[in-house]
Design goal:
Blueprint (H helix, E strand, L loop, with lengths): L2 H26 L7 H23 L6 H7 L4 H17 L1
Amino acid sequence: PHIKNYLPQIVKEINIKRKDVEERLRELGPPLPKDSTEKMQLLWNMVTEFCSNFKNTIGGRYITSQEKATKGVSGGARIKHYYYKIYKEFIGN
């Protein structure tokens, strides 16, 4: 057997593996920055996004109107509701 007979199959397998690796790299997302300034910017963005998500969750802003209609107030909005209820009672006394 000559390599010319196997070459098309080898090329096909290489292309399949290449596509698999490219898909996996896409799933992993963009590479981490190498420059220290870019690393700090990435960290800052991640902390800012976390804080924003936390604040919105406590405020009950991640609950859709459909969820409110079926489940009522939940999560951070429930905490906020009880807090204001207790606060009003405290101020009233």
